[in-house]
TrEMBL record, chains A, B:
This is Peptidase M24. InterPro entries: Creatin/AminoP/Spt16_N, Creatinase/aminopeptidase-like, Creatinase_N, Pept_M24, Pept_M24_MAP, Peptidase_M24B. Residues 8-140 form the Creatinase N-terminal domain. Residues 148-382 form the Peptidase M24 domain. GO terms for molecular function: aminopeptidase activity; metalloexopeptidase activity. CDD domains: APP_MetAP (cd01066). Coiled coil: none annotated. Pfam families: Creatinase_N (PF01321), Peptidase_M24 (PF00557). It comes from Paenibacillus rigui. Transmembrane segments: none annotated.
Length: 400, 400
């Protein structure tokens, strides 16, 4: 893993040079882990050429054990600019007195206060947004990363099957979810799921039965769920699950830092015929998109194709949410975070590449009745794809 | 609650006027909930005088149900500046052509990208940091907020006592924690704990037994825990719990959005005499600090007093962490987030006021052996304090 992390830094340096950027200051915990192997707090400085260095605030001892990159105690932050100037003298001198150095930082997550602190100690630096740079690097997963996601897929499948054995009419979404959370936690779920988007939170996914699944939500997904109240307006509610209604089980877990994301539709007893047909349409869309999953296919084309198929099935109004609350994507990258690149949506012209991992989730929302659909996670391979999700497909009808 | 939220906005407006600030743009989910009662995504604009308005991106329907403040669909973000100019014409005109309007925003959590988006649509505005303004308002809790924290205290006590009945030698910290998480979740824990600090994460607290508790950690607390690996370098590990060693159980939960934070020290069978003495010193410090807990007492004085007492006991080197990894505080505010104001630390000159809620956590770290201590949460009242934590005190020795 040490070499892999150093290669990641080299790839970042290549990108920096291409964009005439002199360096990158990485501060977010997940990005720090990606490049160094450590999540201790501090500043990872990656110059466009030469050795990167991880300036650690706390804990230095622990960072030294974990980091693939050379660690140095940050010490007084006021001296940080001076210290960088000493260590990277050539870089700072090359910029000269009249032109500023250009450093990239993660503007998508970096709070304004943090940038201001950096500006104060590095007045000779012009700061630019390096979010996309980093997110694009993270988009392509290594063999080691794929192994973690496969393990997460195994754990979530186990939890799903265990949960089905406990499902009874009258059970609440919260009760069903608490059992799943216990299963995944015992198997090593880290206790949280990471999401990059500002103000977005993800618990262990959502279980939404009947109308509760179809409630609109701030959550940036096709079915956020009703939640326990205005202070957690997504995921499970205390509504009792009833026979016959669709139970959307969109669940995930995080093993060794890597998340999986999958959805299955379940009911206690037989569902309504039209909902079952809509569910089958979601599987048809998934099969069709699978047939396009190979290097070179363009992300937004996959999304467009799903819109066409939903339209042909007469289900456009219900696809990926309902009415004003429809979301405009079909899938999203997963990895250390649940909202990685690429996104299967308009404006994302990325061609698929081997190593991308994408959760694809065609779903149909019926206000007052529920949400049906399926979600699998896939790795793009040299010739096509590997389905990472191992859970059985099809609408799961449990006997009453 | 509707009136309470409108009063909060009035208090914010008073503060804005005092600081010659023309308005405040609130975007963070927790702050949005605090002022509107809704956590849907969008922008809450609070002018220094007149009616606030919540511009909601998603879900408008849901925000309308939840919000105490008038809701308007955000629509195209490009038009947002124009729309604000129309709605708050007097405010925008008063600024005139040569002087900029001053708007505050939450620079402690607002990502740079988000500020840049606001700057683009509101070029006539100078943005300043309003974090402290908002955090100071949130520091004083209402009766309704205190009720939520009391309920969280009840839930975490229940989970603690249940967990003790399952504790056996050889059980891992992770197993013990998974049981606690199940208990609190069934009682309505929202599935996550919120923390404001950049890059800080909190799960459901930490359980650390023996040496695992004393491992240094990036986490901004006296005992972060070993964690499951570099990708979650805090909280529980898979280390089996052994007889006689101190088991630090620093746990919390979040009920109706409000967190509680408490710590107890437990062992299977009798502990070492010196660790027991150190534990008793932590209770003595807590009792002493309690005797000072009343309106007017100065936060940093409480911290200083604890340092004096730890020193007198000959335990300075072990207090609140060990060596370079000691943290420089004794307690912290809790509420919607686990890291609220005030902080009992140097530089915090706030006098205590009725309604403040503070978790106070004197702890002693012994590298290679463990951490011992206690943590209670308190509300400051008109005459003194209310202890919110209901769990029994004293080192809990379980029979083998």
């Amino acid at each position: 893993m040490r070499n892999e992390r150093l290669q990641r830094i080299e790839r970042l340096q290549e990108r920096l040079r291409k964009q005439q950027t002199d360096g990158c200051m990485i501060t977010q915990n997940v990005d720090l882990y990606y490049f160094t192997g450590s999540m201790q707090t501090g500043y990872l400085f990656v110059p466009c050429e030469g050795e990167a260095r991880f300036f650690v605030r706390r804990s230095v001892v622990r960072a030294e054990e974990e980091s693939a990159v050379a660690v140095e105690a940050l010490g007084s932050f006021r001296e940080f600019g001076k210290r960088l100037g000493e260590l990277y003298a050539a870089l700072f001198q090359a910029a000269g007195a009249d032109s500023k150095l250009r450093f990239a930082a993660e503007f998508d997550v970096l709070p304004v206060q943090q940038l201001q602190r950096l500006q104060a100690v590095l007045p000779a630096v012009e700061w630019i947004d390096g979010s996309l740079l980093i997110r694009e690097l993270r988009m392509i997963k290594s063999a080691a990363e794929l192994s973690c996601i496969r393990e997460a897929a195994r754990v979530v499948d186990l939890a799903f099957e265990e949960a089905l054995t406990t499902l009874r009419p009258g059970m609440t979404e919260l009760e069903l979810m608490s059992g799943i959370e216990l299963s995944i936690r015992r198997e090593g779920h880290i206790g949280l799921m990471r999401m990059r988007g500002y103000n977005q939170e993800v618990i262990t996914g959502m279980i939404g039965a009947g109308e509760a699944a179809a409630v609109p939500s701030y959550f940036d997904g096709p079915a956020g769920g009703q939640g326990l109240g205005a202070v957690v307006p997504q995921s499970v509610s205390r509504r009792p699950i009833q026979s016959g209604e669709p139970i959307l089980m969109d669940i995930g877990c995080c093993i060794d830092g890597y998340v999986i994301d999958q959805t299955r539709t379940v009911s206690l007893g037989p569902p309504s015929e039209d909902l079952l047909q809509a569910y089958e349409e979601s599987e048809r869309i998934l099969r069709h998109v699978e047939s396009m999953l190979q290097p070179g296919a363009v992300c937004e084309q996959l999304y467009r194709q799903s819109l066409i198929l939903a339209h042909e099935a007469g289900l456009s109004d219900h696809f990926m949410g309902y009415g004003a609350d429809q979301v405009k994507f079909l899938g999203h990258g997963i990895g250390l975070e649940i909202d990685e690149l690429p996104v299967l949506a308009k404006g994302f012209s990325y061609p698929l590449q081997p190593g991308m991992v994408i959760a694809i989730e065609p779903k149909f929302t019926f206000p007052g009745r529920g949400v049906v659909g399926i979600e699998n996670s896939y790795a793009i391979t040299d010739n096509g794809f590997e389905k990472l999700t191992v859970t059985r497909e099809g609408w799961v009808q449990l006997h009453l």
